[in-house]
Amino acid sequence: MRPLLPLTRFGFLALFAATALACAAQPATLNDERAAEQPAETAADILPQIVEARKSMRRYGVAQASPKPAGAVRLVTYNIENLFDDVDDPTLSGKDEDIDDLKPFHQRAAVAEAIHTIDPDILCMQEVESLEALEWFRDEFLSDMGYKYIVSLDAGNSRGIENAVLSRYPLSEGTVWVGAALGGVHPALYGDKPNYEAGKPLVFRRSPLLVDVTLPSVEGRDDWTLSLFVEHHKSGRYNSYWREAEARKIVSLAKEVTDAHPGRAVVVLGDFNAQSADESVQIYLENGFHDLFADREDEGPAIMTHESNRRIDLMLANDAAMAHLLVDQAFVFGTAARPAEIDWRDLDTFMGYASDHYPVVVDVVPSVD
Q1: Which residue, 331, 261, 262, is CA-closest to 299?
Q2: Residue 43 burial by CB count (10 A; 0-12/13-18/19+): exposed, middle or buried?
Q3: Gap between the Cα atoms of 69 and 95, Å rounded
Q4: Taking the CB of residue 253, how many other CB atoms lie within 10 A of it?
């Protein structure tokens, strides 16, 4: 039987405060494999260790989530790293077999703790196995968060991972472009080795997910729509050509949205597997999108979004969206990370570990003057 979280969000927050001193005397350890492999009966049992690990083992992002301004809507993107459930997907086999891919209980609990602390109104996620897995996670850990609206659609990825959204505000049903042609073919070489994809047409590795969110406006004005492209670009050192083709396609899809709805606020957000100076990101910037952290590169670790000391989880907004975003208050929320000298291959997980990515957070104001 799957353990259920017995705490409301307010109970979560109260427990944080009550256990702060106690958990400081009981720091999480890196090599307690039994703690990592044998989940406690409830999340409350391991919550003090999760909180302590987040505080003491944070290398990137900020330690405290800024309070959400009155009347604002909090938008977050978070690659939660392999949210697989324990139900076998018969369509996945061979190297993509998912029977042993269940995200450990302590990791799910740590992701949930971060989400509770940030308190997103709209939570965009990458590496979700399925709608069913996301509903299970929501009901297991986030049932008190008010996420009435949920979208997760097949992205066409061989591993089965999807992009998804949980929201307190109404969502459209969502659109994906599984297998959409990007133009061109794969090159002959992958680095200096033969490319096993050579000559095949370029298509999305994982289709982006487009959702429209209906947001409230101020008194006397109509509700308005924010369009979100939740994406997870192709990874890999030598796949820059693939990411660039994906970026060009997403730019064209975003243009279709704004052509059909002039003045529409659009944000492209997610795991870009590229940094701001890389060509795939520059394609967005050259086509009317703005990087929320463009003027904050000197903040170093505070804005890094991945354990590899890279800022690869981005929010890129068009002009109409920028008018609604409190850019100066955007932040990356830090969770527990492996020490710099320890490779993930040597330490797959530990108590308090949530994901190798960190949530990126911005607040949205309902309307503009």
Answers
A1: 331
A2: buried
A3: 46
A4: 17
Give the chain's radius of gyration (CA, Å).
20
**10-19 contacts, C-beta under 8 A, 24 or more apart:** 12/47, 12/113, 12/116, 12/144, 13/116, 15/44, 15/47, 15/48, 16/47, 16/51, 16/117, 19/47, 19/48, 19/51
**Predicted confidence (pLDDT) per residue in 253-308, tens digit:** 999 999 999 999 999 999 999 999 999 999 999 999 999 999 999 999 999 999 99
Indicate the helix (H) or strand (E) that contains 232. Answer: strand 224-232
Lowest mean pLDDT segment, chosen from 95-99, 114-118, 154-158, 169-173: 95-99
What residue ranges in 111-161 does DSSP mark as E strands?
122-128, 149-153
Among the listed residues 156, 281, 255, the one whose alpha carbon sits nearest the alpha carbon of residue 208: 156
Q: Which of 367, 326, 345, 351 is nearest to 68 (CA)?
A: 326
For domain 9-364, say whether CATH 3.50.50.60 is its number: no
Using the structure block, give the residue that is written with the tokens 């970026």. Answer: 247
Contact 333, 361 (CB under 8 A): yes
Q: How far is CA 343 from the centre of its chain?
A: 22
Centroid of chain to Cα 66: 18
Two tokens at 23?
Answer: 């958990």
CA distance 248 to 290: 15
